[in-house]
Design brief:
This protein has 927 residues and is an alpha+beta fold. The protein is built from 28 helices and 30 strands.
């Protein structure tokens, strides 16, 4: 498209620029579904609706793999492919390893599935560390780098910065896993708006597209999700409720029952199929080497097993085939769906158990369920669907995107939580899977010690939520433990996977000292209150601990305190020395009175009625002098120290070391990208220049010597790229490119001038024609020719006419001189010169057009005296126009007058002008 053809799109471009400036400070928000096998990234940003961000291969999901080789870091499919050659350098299926100690059954299972990895325990935290030669990588470091890649996908897709995210995590994550994931996000420089459970994100996505179907009657749905690692069944209720905050009637979802099987998933089936194929290959006796002892061959079999598994979901049989599996021997074997199902027979028997358990926990019969919705890629297996149908006697709904539902639900939640976005509210209440209790020792009257248990968050309690526990009998320092409550609903193996059942120990200090300093005859202790929260990410926290006291205050005390304050104020205004008269220091107001007043506002619900009654009695007591005592509530913070007893997140020096390691890897990758971009840019420029200089269109813009010099440099540069350039750095490539451009750009500039000049001349011609048409009309609006409509002076008309004639003469002369030159000669008439002439002519026309818009007709005189007092026509027209023009920045649309001739429409851009700035008038030659 020619440059002057683009001018008609200028208003649209300006609008888009303004829109961009308005949204420049608004960043995009993303969601990340960190599945065991795949990662999906959802995005929402100003101007971009909720969508799945594409990766560099333009795919909507990426394998959860990362690999390292010779300081080169790869992700996704590239990492997977590198893993076929170097299995020990490629790491996947990492999500479930977060927050696990080295002796956890989950880690032991991982080792058996991927025996080529050397997994050791962290020296300080005893967590999972992958060791490969001299390099070590913690699970947190690997996941943080994958999150950074997810952020890169989101930023590339939206073209905006991303700093906030909602992360989808398995619902069975405990405190160790959740706090560990928060630290992973911190390493990736991401602010976590919320950790959302996978089933809650799916249910939210399902509900937001069915808002109209939700009413005050509860509707029950089951979401059955079989993914790569686990199977989860979730019972939820959709219903409209009144929001306590906004008092609006809003749709909501409540999780009622959750059951899961941690090892029932596609990965276990793929592992069994891999081992089956390995057995088949060994039976062929093609080599003496057992294929299971070769990590590279087993990685190839693992990938092929995944492909075969997916094909058998739609076909009854297929062939597994791998070229050069082991010692250059190929492998090919037929696998039937029946054989595959026999391998997974015991797994398929467990398929309906999860759903049955979820219904049992929710205490709902199957008859009340509206639909069972399938989620997760492995629910596509015919045998899984057949087994479910035979147990529940219900049709299975497939009306949701099984792969992307969680990511899309999470990004909707992200838009709701982030600033700058407005979404229709959808209330979500998740449920506690692992009950939390506190335990502490209490000494009886006989001196015996017994353990006391108090449940904070029971099974299937809704969260986010806050709870308070009161300790009434403790007068000395003591501690209590935070533990997982009864876990009888879980199997013994599953309880082991949770790790430590004791979450933390809280030590309360200085209790005796606080009591001694605060208790008096009129102050009584009401116990030590510990405040707890379970936030919307499912993370438990001790908010604060405080001593609650009640102080009895007589009306005289209140009056005395009030009198002291009143006296202080009066002395300040009277200028008297308060200390000399009252003996009190004015800089030290009475803390008790202030504290009482403040805490009186926060008195608990049980004291509201008595407080109100006291206030009423006080007002009455001013008359009868029989006022009752007043009770106020006081609070004093109790110091507490929390010791985490589960696998804690990265912290301190370890966190700093991990952060530095990731930053160093990022720098290496950035330098690698810079090198690749510089090399590609130089290579492309060389090829492009050689092709262009082979055409007459470009050759005519240069001399033979210039063409020879450029082509010689192109040839030398091309040879350098494929020889010495392989060892060069990015700066050398950038320098070579600049050297080549310095020679070729002059030719490209001449070519551009010759190509764009005709369009520029046409644009100037159109402007001249329009200006001439406007001039013809303007000549009839002078004071001399048309006293009633005398807008312009003759000097202004003459000035415009002069500019038009000078522009025409300049154009004709310059065109004539340019045509005498060859295309290879230096350009005489440039596009810039033409645009400057157009700008000058446009300014002259705009001045006159704006004067028309500001002009007002002279009012007719009412009588002779008024007529004599009227200004002359010249005094009426010119000063008024100039005066109104000086005010056009504040009121430029008042009394707008349009010309009645059609010729003014020929001015082109001039008719689009709303105002003329003061600067334009001051630059006018007449002034």
């Amino acid at each position: 498209m020619k440059i002057f053809e683009r001018l008609k799109y200028l208003p649209i471009l300006l609008f888009l620029l303004i829109l961009h400036l308005r949204t420049a400070n608004m960043a995009a928000v993303m969601s990340v579904d960190l599945g065991s096998e795949w990662m999906k990234v959802g995005v929402v940003s100003p101007g971009v609706p909720m969508e799945i961000a594409l990766n560099k291969e333009s795919k909507r999901k990426s394998p959860m793999f990362i690999s390292f080789k010779d300081n080169v870091r790869l992700f996704g499919e590239d990492a997977q492919n590198l893993g076929l050659r170097y299995p020990t350098n490629s790491f996947g299926y990492l999500t479930d390893l977060i927050g696990k100690s080295i002796d956890n059954p989950v880690v032991e299972l991982y080792k058996s599935r991927f025996p080529w990895h050397n997994i050791v325990g962290d020296e300080k935290r005893n967590t999972v560390v992958f060791k490969n030669g001299n390099e070590t990588y913690s699970v947190e470091e690997l996941l943080a780098q994958i999150l950074e890649k997810a952020k890169e996908f989101a930023q590339d897709y939206t073209g905006q910065a991303v700093t906030e995210t909602v992360i989808v995590v398995p619902g069975y994550f405990g405190q160790a896993e959740r706090t560990g994931m928060m630290r992973v996000a911190q390493l990736a420089n991401l602010k976590v708006l919320q950790l959302i459970n996978d089933y809650s994100a799916v249910a939210l996505n399902y509900g937001i597209f069915r808002r109209k179907e939700i009413n005050e009657t509860a509707q029950y749905f089951v979401f059955y999700d079989m993914g790569a690692y686990k199977t989860v069944a979730t019972v939820v209720a959709y219903q409209t409720v009144k929001d306590k905050a906004t008092r609006e009637i809003l749709p909501s979802l409540q999780v009622l029952g959750v059951a899961y099987d941690r090892t029932l998933g596609g990965l276990e089936m793929q592992i069994r199929l891999r081992d089956f194929l390995a057995k088949k290959f060994n039976e062929m006796k093609k080599t003496q080497t057992n294929v299971t002892t070769n990590p590279r061959a087993m990685m190839k079999l693992f990938k092929e097993a995944g492909r075969v598994k997916n094909i058998l979901s739609a076909n009854t049989d297929t062939f597994a085939q791998i070229e050069g599996l082991l010692e250059e021997h190929d492998f090919k074997v037929k696998v039937t769906r029946e054989e595959f199902e026999q391998l997974c027979d015991d797994l398929l028997e467990r398929v309906p158990n999860v759903l049955t358990k979820a219904l049992e926990i929710s205490e709902l019969p199957i008859e009340t369920i509206n639909q069972v919705v399938l989620v997760g890629g492995n629910t596509r297996m015919p045998k899984v669907q057949e087994t479910l149908k035979s147990k529940i006697k219900l049709d299975l709904a497939k009306n949701i995107n099984a792969d992307e539902a969680a990511a899309m639900g999470a990004v909707y939640r992200g838009a709701d939580l982030a600033t700058g976005f407005k979404v229709k509210k959808f209330l979500t209440k998740d449920a506690v899977l692992y009950p939390i209790q506190i335990t502490f020792d209490r000494v009886g009257e006989s001196g015996t010690v017994r353990e006391v248990k108090r449940t904070l968050f029971g099974p299937m309690n809704a969260y986010p939520s806050k709870k308070v526990i009161t300790f009434n009998k403790n007068t000395e320092d003591f501690h209590f433990d935070v533990k997982y409550d009864e876990l009888n609903h879980l199997s013994e193996d599953e309880v082991k996977c949770l790790g430590s059942k004791v979450l933390s120990r809280v030590q309360l200090k200085k209790i005796s000292e606080i009591l001694q300093n605060n208790l008096a005859e009129n102050v009584a202790s009401k116990g030590i209150k510990a405040h707890f929260s379970l936030d919307d990410s499912g993370i438990f926290d001790l908010v604060n601990v405080e001593l609650l006291m009640e102080k009895t205050v007589s009306p005289d005390d209140d009056q005395n305190a009030f009198q002291k304050i009143s006296n202080t104020i009066s002395k300040l205004f009277s200028g008297k020395d308060e200390e000399s008269e009252s003996g009190a220091n004015p800089t030290e107001p009475e803390p008790q009175a202030e504290e009482s007043k403040e805490n009186n506002k926060t008195t608990n619900d049980t004291q509201d009625s008595s407080s109100n009654q006291t206030e009423n009695q006080q007002s009455a007591g001013e008359q009868n002098k029989t006022e009752p005592l007043k009770i106020v509530t006081l609070k004093e913070q109790v110091p507490s120290e929390v010791s985490v007893l589960y696998v804690g997140p990265l912290d301190g020096e370890q966190y700093a070391a991990s952060e530095k390691k990731i930053n160093d890897l990022n720098k290496i990758e950035q330098e690698k990208k810079r090198f690749e971009n510089a090399m590609n840019a130089l290579e492309s420029y060389v090829i492009d220049t050689q092709m262009k200089l082979d055409t007459e269109e470009y050759k005519s813009c240069a001399s033979e010597e210039e063409i020879k010099n450029i082509l010689d440099m192109c040839a030398k540069t091309s040879d350098w790229i494929y020889e010495d350039g392989m060892d060069a750095d990015a700066s050398m490539y950038e320098e070579k490119l600049e050297q080549l451009k310095s020679l070729a750009n002059e030719i490209y500039a001449k070519h551009w001038e010759h190509n764009e000049r005709p369009e520029a001349l046409n644009a100037l011609k159109s402007m001249i024609n329009g200006s001439e048409g406007f001039l013809a009309t303007a000549k009839n609006l002078t004071i001399d020719k048309n006293p009633d409509r005398g807008v312009f002076t003759q000097v202004e008309i003459n000035n415009l006419e002069k500019v038009i004639k000078e522009t025409i003469a300049w154009r004709d002369n310059e065109v004539k001189e340019q045509e005498k030159l060859a295309r290879s000669d230096p350009v005489r008439l440039t596009v810039k010169m033409l645009t400057e002439k157009m700008s000058l002519l446009d300014r002259e026309v705009k001045y006159l057009v704006n004067k028309i818009k500001l002009w007002k007709p002279k009012p007719a005189p009412k009588d002779k005296d008024e007529k004599n007092a009227t200004k002359t026509e010249e005094e009426e027209a010119k000063p008024e126009a100039e005066q109104q023009h000086s005010e056009n920045n504040t009121d430029n649309n008042k009394d707008e007058t349009k010309t009645t001739t059609d010729d003014t429409s020929k001015v082109g851009e001039s008719e689009q002008i709303n105002d003329q700035s003061k600067e334009d008038i001051e630059n006018h030659s007449e002034l």
